[in-house]
Amino acid sequence: MGQLIKTLALLIALISTSQVWSMNKVIYGLDNREELSQSPFSYLSNSVASMVYKSARYDYDEEISSFLSSDLTEYRAGKTCSDMRFREQTTLATCSGFLISDELLVTAGHCVLNYGQYANNTYTGSCSQNFWVFNYGIDSIAKDEVTVSSEDVYNCDKIVDGAYTDTKDYAIVKLGRKVVGKTPVKLNLNFDYTSEEEVFVVGNPSGLPTKISNKAQISDSSQKHFFTSNLDTFAGNSGSAIFNSNAEVIGILVSGETDYVLDQERSCYMVNHCVDVNGECIDPLVDKASGETGTKITVLNRYFNK
Length: 306
Known about the structure:
By secondary structure, this protein is mainly β. It is 10% helix and 38% strand. The protein is built from four helices and 25 strands. The strands form six sheets. It has a six-stranded antiparallel β-barrel with strand order 17-18-19-25-21-20. A six-stranded antiparallel barrel has the order 3-8-9-15-14-11. A hairpin with a 4-residue loop joins strand 8 and strand 9. The longest helix is centred in the first third of the chain and has 19 residues. It is globular. The chain starts with a helix and ends with a helix.
């Protein structure tokens, strides 16, 4: 019976994950992703969280929660190429988020809202269907399974504020209980988006254990609530915190180029690489890369100034 429950949970997780990963991202130049736990910013593991379907959890008690997950050896019913990085790691997360207080978390609006929806203390289907999980890292995974402390698993209480429209994509999530042993990120609500300083992102590319990707720059900030960069991100990174060089959050990752393309010669999916923003990509359907889009963190000023 226990094995049957695990199998059913894995099937549900596979279907659910494919439905959520709708906002693509991509690699620019070299792949700068690395394990957060092995980086100088490993302390951020207590500040960032992963959105995970409740249906993926097959066993838990007061101490440990166990989740079933697929890996990246397959993509859209096809095989991924054997030289793809991280392909044998779990892909549990569907979106990313980051803590801004002892009970509030920020993510992309499209992770928790329907298109055209605004939130004001709203309870959504996403709240009922998902957990927010901290410390989902390389040390918590085994084959097809992720194990974390039950203290790191939080329900969603409601969406305090947010929007998913053509001009805004953000959400503030109230967790079901106050966090324990976590540290909110530092926000820079007055950031100069025309600066040329490096930026980095922390989240779950393709649902993988939490990664950091750095050595990127903002390429365009002319829109009121959005900016673009050459960060290396994927679906699953939606909601990820974008940091400046002082480790202050200046944006929320929301969209980008196509993640994977079919290698016709090898009959497997490979990562879509682009030279840079406005440069060529492997994806034959893209003339020039548009860049990865982030919501400016200044969009939260309206909430804080209420």
